[in-house]
Amino acid sequence: MKLLTLNFLTCARKTCKSLPAAFPLHPREAELEQVETDMNAALIKNILPRLEWDAMKTVTTELGLPNLPAETPAPEDLATADGEPSQTLKDLHVLLMDTAVVSGKLVCGNCGHEYAVKEGIANFLLPSHMV
């Protein structure tokens, strides 16, 4: 599961859906993997305004990854004067597109429920008593 995906996931319990503590899910005992992919600058630029930046900062801090800037980078910060990708864009690409959680847990900050991640896939099926 790419780190980008964590920016769109919340606890599956109905009681947690509307509570701010249920987002983002917090990775625990996470094993990370980096798989190099081709740079897609347009994708990163289009995704950036849709990201919950504070949530991404929280996740990267919890995983022990390099700190993100305090604010979402501006579009002009993503390219150099000669049109080449800036280091900021390259770093975001590696973080969002190349880095994945292979195994571990995703924990809800509200109810504490743990969702297992195995082989890069999170299991969001809840036991019947929690639905």
Description:
With 131 residues, this protein is of the alpha+beta class. The protein has one domain (3-130): N-terminal domain of TfIIb (Single Sheet), CATH 2.20.25.10. 25% of the residues lie in helices and 19% in strands. A four-stranded antiparallel beta sheet has the order 1-2-3-4. The longest helix has 12 residues, at 87-98. The mean pLDDT is 91. This is Trm112p-like protein. One of its GO terms (biological process) is maturation of LSU-rRNA. Belongs to the TRM112 family. One of its GO terms (cellular component) is eRF1 methyltransferase complex.
What would a concise description of this structure say?
The protein has 131 residues and is α+β, with helices and mostly antiparallel strands. Helices cover 25% and strands 19% of the residues.
Question: What is the CATH first-level class name?
Answer: Mainly Beta
The coarse overall form would be elongated
Helix content: 25-40%
Give me the number of helical elements: 4
What characterizes the major β-sheet? 4 strands, antiparallel
Q: How many structural units, i.e. domains?
A: 1
Unreliable spans are none
- Give me the Rg, rounded: 16 Å
CATH architecture: Single Sheet
Structural topology:
Blueprint: H1 3-6, E1 26-34, H2 41-47, H3 53-62, H4 87-98, E2 99-107, E3 114-118, E4 121-122
List keywords for this structure.
single chain, 131 residues, alpha+beta, N-terminal domain of TfIIb, four-stranded antiparallel sheet, 4 helices, 4 strands, 25% helix, 19% strand, elongated, Trm112, protein heterodimerization activity, rRNA (guanine) methyltransferase activity, Trm112-like, Trm112p-like protein
